[in-house]
Amino acid sequence: MSTRSERPDPQHRDEEQAPEVEPGVRPDAAPGPDEVMLEDGEELSDPALRDRLLKETVAHALAQDAQYSGPVGNPMGTRTGWKLLGACALFLVAGLLLLAPPRLLTGPPPPDLTPADLRRGMEATLLLHALEIDAFRLESARLPASLEEVGASGSDVRYLRTGNRSYQLTLRAPGVGVVIHDGTDPPATARSLAERWLRHPHLP
Amino acid sequence: MKARRDGAGFLVADVVVGLAALAVLAALVVPVVHRIARDARIQAAQEWVQQVRMGYEEHRAAEGSWPVSAPPGQVPEGLAPYLPPGASFEGDGFVVEARRWRAVEQPPRPANIPEIPDDTPADTVPLPSPTVGVLAGVSLGTSDPALLAALLSRHPDDSFVQDTVWTLVFPQRPRP
């Protein structure tokens, strides 16, 4: 038995005619899909055999074509889409966490300054200015002409003399409004702070 | 975008997912780090205030007067021996100014001399003249409202906030 190619190329034709091929001995290499095993005595010139081989070859080619040319799913592309979708979701979560971090991460918020705190701060500031003015008045027997004279410049406090013995201090702040300290009638907060801070407060 | 396989064997989609995971991790870590830094800054400022308050009171007890005022960031003259070594009037995100204010004090009227029976009435002790005393304090300027609020809540009676400055006044009365 000998191996023959279906294609009629000259080299195979020479091997076909070569007498050194021993009958009944199979070669080590297995025949390929396009090779045909010929039985002893078979001839390629047999029309029936040629028709059968041609039909088998065409059928094989059609089967191969049907296997590889059909629509094939793209699992890699599907997974990529899911990954990108998940990445978008993660980016969204990260943005939300940065914009509005939960209390668990930020801890308790620090106390805020209330308008009452700000107003008390303004009244305390005016009180300290008034104490300086009163000290100047005690030493000089007159009211200062301006805050610079008592060394209290550089602040937003406005000083207004309303008489030889009376004055007003005003301070304005957004969200609080205007706070007035009358030198002849200090507000209750100023009196309370003076009582706390001074050993022997002296207010009108 | 078309996914491609790079030399390391990862798809671009894998890299994007990794970056997104890192972004989530960073978003979780950043608020915690921010909170820790804020708490540490507030804690350091409060400890600093406590040290300065003790230094002022020790200075007053030893010298008989409050320390003098000083420009922002400078330790008042004579106060350094009463502060921890290396203490500064500048901290993490704040600068401090030593302040003094003059204030009129009215000493109380002494008690009258006790009446003696069958004697002439005792004279009324006159009211002493008012004097000018000194108030001392420190003003801490910072742009951190959380620090201002935290310091104010820690010293609600002796301090106040005006704009971006927290001021602590050391009372003339001895602390109970």
Structure description:
The complex is a heterodimer of chains A (204) and B (176). By secondary structure, chain A is mainly alpha-helical. Chain A has helices at residues 10-17, 47-69, 75-99, 103-106, 115-140, 188-197; strands spanning 3-5, 35-37, 158-161, 167-173, 177-182. Chain A has 6 helices and 5 strands, in the order βαβααααβββα. In chain A, the strands form 2 sheets. Chain A has a 3-stranded antiparallel β-sheet, with helices on one face. In chain A, strands 1-2 form a two-stranded antiparallel ribbon. The longest helix of chain A has 26 residues, at 115-140. The radius of gyration of chain A is 54 Å and the shape is rod-shaped. Chain B has 2 helices and 5 strands, in the order H-E-E-E-H-E-E. Chain B has helices at 12-63, 145-154, and strands at residues 90-91, 94-105, 131-142, 159-162, 165-170. A 5-stranded antiparallel β-sheet of chain B has the order 1-2-3-5-4. In chain B, a hairpin with a 2-residue loop joins strand 4 and strand 5 (165-170). Chains A and B meet through helix 3, helix 5 and helix 6 of A and helix 1, strand 2, strand 3, helix 2 and strand 4 of B.
What's this model, at a glance?
The complex is a heterodimer of chains A (about 200) and B (about 180). Chain A is mainly alpha-helical.
